[in-house]
Model the fold of this input.
Amino acid sequence: MKIIVDAMGGDNAPEAIVAGAVQAINAQKDLTVVLTGDKERIEKILRSGEGNEEKPYSYDPTRLEIVHCAEVITNDDVPTVAIRQKKDSSLVVALKILKEDEEAKGFVSAGSTGAVLTGALLRVGRIRGISRPAVCPVLPTAKGGKVLLIDAGANAECKPVNLCHFAIMGTAYAKAMGISSPRVGLVTNGTEEHKGDPLHQESYQLLKNLAGIRFVGNVEGRDIMSGDIDVAVCDGFSGNIALKTTEGTALAVMSVIKENIKASFWAKIGYALFMRKAFKNIKRVLDYSKYGGAVLLGIDKVVVKSHGSSKAESVCASILQARDAAANGLTETIKEMLSQVDLEAIGSEA
Amino acid sequence: MKIIVDAMGGDNAPEAIVAGAVQAINAQKDLTVVLTGDKERIEKILRSGEGNEEKPYSYDPTRLEIVHCAEVITNDDVPTVAIRQKKDSSLVVALKILKEDEEAKGFVSAGSTGAVLTGALLRVGRIRGISRPAVCPVLPTAKGGKVLLIDAGANAECKPVNLCHFAIMGTAYAKAMGISSPRVGLVTNGTEEHKGDPLHQESYQLLKNLAGIRFVGNVEGRDIMSGDIDVAVCDGFSGNIALKTTEGTALAVMSVIKENIKASFWAKIGYALFMRKAFKNIKRVLDYSKYGGAVLLGIDKVVVKSHGSSKAESVCASILQARDAAANGLTETIKEMLSQVDLEAIGSEA
Done:
């Protein structure tokens, strides 16, 4: 299983990316990683062990390839322009390999979301039948499980057919994660069938009858992380707001807890003596990056967008996530599900 | 200052409502509360002290009036029908007093949101110039302050003019809460000026030039509770999702913390010995109901919708909130701000 990794994308590139790639091939013996980027810098990092806790690196060099390229696409670049013009960038070169190398099953980047999405669309292409790829992150739930949120922001404006596609792709990804019959909820402003704007009202009617989907109806924002659904279908606008609101709220809650512990002498003692470990664990559960990145669903191969501020541990998680999704036939499942759907009935354009 | 209270609305009515009303008049000496509802039941509660910790009640009876009415509007009623037909319901009678009694400055109900909103619109009326009233709850922030979210769900479909009105009303309410120059953010799927769907893009341009508004630009879901803004302007659809996502996330985080403390022997000891008090305080900060209810802004008098599951403490907080908003001239401030705005430029319809 070969996964291509953009070594130059993200705030901590290339050190954290290289370190994450080494961790990933050490964790998964069937995995080969191809790093695209500045070969000299990458080799220097591999020699010195920068960004890694155990120096120098120990790994199987036959499963870590480097493909040199001279350019980097940054957050300041306009995605559509950069993808066309920066032909020797780590992102474009990686996507070229992903498209052309049959053994390459997936791609990971911590670079600009816009550039990764645009690049994947232009250089790898969509799955036939999917008009709009979507961003699908994995969130923790109150019950200790995971929930997928789709679309988390690729499409600010959606039609009902897009939300049907999101339900199909989310279901396929949940299945690839081992959930046999994923429960799909439509995130709206109330649970009743008639709730929402016309987009969501129409989508509800289509989702109710969509082949292969276990639709549990409308859900509210408070249900996303409750553990009662596996896939939360959103339009990209409110999905982005919901995703970032979970981040902001978790931070706010942790900050209120910290302040209250600091403010109380006894709580400070209790924390120092007994609770440090439990809190470390809590932070780990709530740290989304440990769950890997967000999958771009609808692209013809597995693409994982790791968080821009990813450190080695999250990069490793994203690479393993791409490997697992590919190994479990994510793209094939989406295609198979699409083949069972009456595309005309849901208004497919592609 | 006279506040009218629907004694029969909400899951814990009338016991919790009566208890909350007594707490409120005991806390605020200039306050008179008028309870509408089943007089016999209310008087029995007042005599027996049901729903209250200190029995029997001790309060100034000249500041607690009861207006008897025989009907109740429930969550099963269709709001528009119930408001017209149940003329002797606690809600309709309360709104009649609010409209007609010049001394009545505000109204509190824990009943159905739809019925309260419809009733307030039909029986009290809108502020001239505001086409769509909005729901505006108060949330805690990471910095220990408060933030207003408007609209939290009254209007699933909005036009740019509605979002301008939300900004004006939210600013007026923040001022009534003592914030001299409230920072207003537009909640979208990114901070850049061009982000969002056409509704939000157009609203951005109008808000930028709106008289009396300190517009700080687009904000993301993660900024709502950061403490960096005072008013978060949303369309009612995504605002409702954002509000409920904060609730769901806070619950999920607290549940993860609880599980981790329960799972560790030492953390359990630390919690029992040292941290119980700090956690009680944390829960208090995160319990939105302690901040009172959501104000319905745009109605010609102060209307506060208390949570359906409100207990006495939240009912008391909502009554004091209505009293403070009225005492600080909320409705007058909205009218004054509207008079300074070029209503035609923002596309006002009313």
Notes: Chain A has eleven helices and twelve strands. Chain A touches chain B through 66 residues (CB under 8 Å). Chain A has a mean pLDDT of 92. The two ends of chain A are 30 Å apart (CA to CA).
